[in-house]
Amino acid sequence: MKVGSLPCLGPIANWLELDFLPQLGVAIGGRDVLALGFSPEQIAAALEPHSPKSITVLAGAGEAFGSHAHVVGDICDPALFAPESFDVVASFAVLEHIDVAAGFANINRILRPGGLFASLFGPVWSSPYGHHLFVDPNDPLLNFALWKLPGWMHLLSSPNEIQDFYRQNCYSEEVIRAILDQIYETPNINRLMYEDYLTHMNQYFAVTRMHLLYNDVPPDIYRALRHKFPHYTDFSTYGGGWAGVRQERTPS
């Protein structure tokens, strides 16, 4: 399907604020919290005001997190934390970038009995902006978060059609290669459909609350998506907020 024929949907609906834990019914006061993906400023705005007992930050190297313990690593790595280390694991804009099955398994392992996992995450592959295209933050055709890109082009348009679209808009071959790499090759996103997230989530957590971010799907686009991906039905959910209680797992 030609990229230019796809709808431009604009911003997502039903936005969830950064201080999302109370909106998901998650209380962290007096609890040991592991924070995934939060910047120091986001921790100050969304976690510290709720008076947790402790905050441990799992993030990249080179950032300062004040008095909070800072661990560099990947949430999929079981060597980082001992079992039952935390009461709450909170993640922000992380799930779309990890091996969800491995990450959920490890979060389940490091939560204490009755522990909570809460997450606010972004574009999933089945959504209009699931390509997570981010080549130039200031260019609306190169930054998914400016809400100007044609919806579902990564699902309904071929690589050649995407190339043609950007060539017609006078982009260089170097930029076009970067676009195709980000959409199809980079390991920075996991390319999971929203229903895949639910399947993995339900294996490890009993979901207590959900807040979905979405775009409406035009009927003709929905029919095209269902025809191409017959095992999936949700092409509107961009991501959202989840909260779930750790489910006990029987050792294999």
TrEMBL record:
CDD domains: AdoMet_MTases (cd02440)
GO biological process, one term: methylation
SUPFAM superfamilies, sorted: S-adenosyl-L-methionine-dependent methyltransferases
Cited Pfam families: Methyltransf_11
Domain Methyltransferase type: 31-118
Keyword Iron appears in the UniProt entry: no
Keyword Transferase: yes
Gene Ontology MF terms: S-adenosylmethionine-dependent methyltransferase activity
Keywords: Methyltransferase, Transferase
Name listed for the protein in its UniProt record: Methyltransferase domain-containing protein
